[in-house]
Amino acid sequence: MADTDLLVDQLTSLLAGETNPVTILANASALLNDTLANINWAGFYLYNEETRQLDLGPFQGKVACMHIAPGRGVCGTAYATGQVQRVADVHQFPGHIACDSASNSEIVVPLPGFGVLDIDSPLTDRFSAADETVLTAFGRAVQKQLDTTPAHSVQ
Q1: Which of 80, 106, 120, 133 is a Cys-bridge partner for 71, taking CB atoms 3.0 to 4.6 Å apart?
Q2: Confidence at residue 5, expressed as pLDDT on a 0 to 100 scale
Q3: CA distances (Å), 32 to each of 8, 40, 48, 124, 150, in order?
Q4: Per-residue pLDDT, 47
Q5: In what order do the strands lie in the sheet with 53-61?
Q6: How many Cβ atoms from other residues are within 10 Å of residue 46's Cβ?
Q7: With a cut of 70, which residues of the chain have pLDDT below it?
Q8: What value, to the nearest 5°, has the Cα angle with vertex 122 and ends 118 and 124?
């Protein structure tokens, strides 16, 4: 995994001055996809106030589930609890939503007020505590950039 400061610095430079939320999230997911080894999906689910669900946002990877209810699966649990979910074996996670059968581990970072950052891996136990630290900092940097968007709207 990349050094925390380096990955956040890369993101900050990449997104400098950008206020389009789709562009922010698309390039953030592309940066993760290009930087992280042994992953098969990196992207965002965005909270939709009208439907009260997480909707699929910009991502890199195979097609994905389009809507996830808060509290359901790893993404929904991270959003509902506001806590990072680092799951060594998704097949052991109660209520796991299998969007890609190749995924075996997952980490989801909540982005309060927006949704979640979701990263999957075909490896079991892919994500370490150090990865969690880096990806949490990355998520905070994404959220800080989203805070600059007009009306903080990602929909």
Answers
A1: 80
A2: 82
A3: 11, 11, 24, 19, 25
A4: 96
A5: 67-68, 53-61, 41-48, 115-121, 105-111, 85-87
A6: 21
A7: 1-4, 151-155
A8: 95
